[in-house]
Amino acid sequence: MSKIYDEVLSANAGYAGSFGDKGSLALPPARRFAILTCMDARLDPARYAGLAEGDAHVIRNAGGRATDDAIRSLVISHKLLGTLEWFVIHHTNCGMELFADEVIADLLEDDLGTASFDGKAWTNPHHHGGHAAGHFVKWHTIGDQARSVLQDVRRIREHPLVSPSIPIYGFVYDVRSGRLDEVKAASEAGKAAA
Ligand SMILES: [Zn+2]
């Protein structure tokens, strides 16, 4: 087994060993809110938003984008599990700003292994075994964080299955300071119906 495999299982043994009364937590999030945010390893929503187990839903994907699947989770979060407020949180220095759809599709068509980035362009170290399927995927890349947050809040707000009673707040997390900066236009667009 790999080193990481062992580390994860060892960390889990420690966690389970001091699990305490968390086994009796209710399924619906106690603080009744949800966060949609990026999978970026530097972001820890439990810490940056002060969450404990059982508090809130956290939905993560590359970019924290309001994809169909993210919206599916949010709709379930409210409809079946009672969350009443949602946050969309993108962040500075997001990897989703570093490529365009054609770039990742071309790289994948050439080779499926990890590509490298020199600060300007992506290149594959090897060139075999790629596939063209990437050209048929919408990758939801980001050009400007404030704009992507606004777009995503709007998309969620206007979705036919999203209750107008849910306020949706838009933020950009700053990876250098740990601070959440509100995107006013997004939170305005995400206001709940009176
Ligand atoms: Zn990101």
From TrEMBL:
Keywords: Lyase, Metal-binding, Zinc. One of its GO terms (molecular function) is carbonate dehydratase activity. Its EC number is 4.2.1.1. CDD domains: beta_CA_cladeD. This is Carbonic anhydrase. Belongs to the beta-class carbonic anhydrase family. The keyword Lyase applies. Its cofactor is Zn(2+).
